[in-house]
Amino acid sequence: MEQMEKMVNVAPTSTSGHFIKGAKNVVNIDNINDTYFVDGESELVTQNHTTLKQDNSCLITTQMVFNPFSKMFEKSHD
Known about the structure:
This protein is mainly beta.
């Protein structure tokens, strides 16, 4: 199968971006929680984290953290 030529940002609220490179397809399955299905072998490339290689299809979602002041879970921030 053919790979995508462009990179897809799977963390649009990030200040640096988190880009999927080399996948067959990337599908946003949940706009609220920024959850993506990545079809096929790929790399997750970021400026402020390690590059991660994925040998298979996977799901990627935004990390949620507990804010003790609001007593709620929130999306993690860079």
